[in-house]
Amino acid sequence: MHITEMDLFTGLDLNVMGAIADTCCIEENFTKDTVLFKEGDEATSLYLLVKGSVDLKIKGETTVYSLTEESDIFGWSSMVENSQYTATAVCRNNIRVIKIDTHRLNRLFEENPNFGLTVYRRLCGVFNKRLSSIYQRFLSVK
Questions:
Q1: For the chain, what percent of residues have pLDDT higher than 70?
Q2: Residue-range definition of the domain harbouring residue 127
């Protein structure tokens, strides 16, 4: 899978997409139970799920959200300044991700602000959808 097929980037300028793919992205595979990052770690990468499942956990135990869909996004804490990951990401099974260096990505956004604004708006939409889902789960438990 290529990042141009991911919801976050689909339909955007191909020249900028090429620069992102060439300078910011690496595809990686991880095995079941691998911890990709821990809550409180310095947040440096955004992840796009290509294959597999990832659990996001808080306080080391409680699964807050399970990512199972191709192109699910996680690690967005890396997209804000002076950030730390707010959850621990653990591979539920063998996975493949596209890992994006967000320091490099933000430099490209500074050179292409319209592109960056579009991506950040889409990222906010993902965040909003996930937060709404968590609210619904919380309310159904009461």
A1: 94
A2: 12-141
